[in-house]
Amino acid sequence: MAEINHFEYGWITPALSYALSVLGSFLGLVCAGRIRTASTAGQRAWWGLLAAWAIGGTAIWAMHFMAMLGFAVAGTRIRYDIPITAASTLIAVTGVGVGLAIVGTGRLSAPRLLVGGLFTGAGVAAMHYTGMAAMRLDGTLGYDPTRVALSVVIALVAATVALWLSMTVRRGLALAASALVMGIAVNGMHFTGMSALSVHLHERRGELTGTEVSGLLVPIVLAVIFGVVGLIYALLAAPTDEDRAGFAYVDGRLAPDPAGPAPAAPPQPAPDPVGLRARSTLGQPGTPFPSRRDTTPR
């Protein structure tokens, strides 16, 4: 059995992976909070997609491969299969998206939350072990069933709690605290699953295909940067509550709200307290013009 090192570069990789999971969780919670306040189905789908990418793509997938930068096996190099790695990304984002779609529509209830947590947790666990299956090394991977089952349970519980937080937490301090808790849960699931791994090296060494994990660093960093910038821009560009008070969305475009406050009526002239205000009837319908005889001085 080969010696495995999960922290080859010390605590820098787990610290960065935790920071990524907290950042993705925070942005995902903010985006998920917009789902229930959205006024149209298109807006709900848009915010759900952004939340799925923030949580699934940044807090889970990017965190996983950032932590894998510090993973090493003595006596063999490690490479990664690109198509399987890309598939793990889709699994993570899709799992979170399905869970948000379940809890984000209709009245939030315990059965709906449990079903959403089941789909999301299964997606998180599947993403982790798909990412592990993408590894190419001179050996055979083995897993301890007990620890694998424990990691799946952690993923299910963490996903359910994350969905509940995404639908209930609104304030900034609570969002930050929730993101910190979610980061602990995601990293706990990852390293629990990694502790279940064992590697038996082959006697004959073959040619390894794929790319080294360092080759994934640039795509991960670029995906995180563009993803985070896009999420922040979307949040800043979203209309505020004051905007919604006077405007409504019509076919995806802002238009004046017909149910908004009615315009003020023009001011009425003050009543004549004495009743002696002169009222000219000259030129009004039915009023004859004076004749020359009437206007001639006598």
From TrEMBL:
The keyword Transmembrane applies. This is MHYT domain-containing protein, NO-binding membrane sensor. Residues 9-200 form the MHYT domain. InterPro entries: MHYT_dom. The chain crosses the membrane at residues 15-33, 45-72, 84-106, 113-135, 147-165, 172-193, 213-236. Residues 258-298 are annotated as: Disordered. It holds the Pfam family MHYT. GO terms for cellular component: membrane. The keyword Transferase does not apply. Residues 258-272 have a biased composition (Pro residues). Keywords: Membrane, Transmembrane, Transmembrane helix.
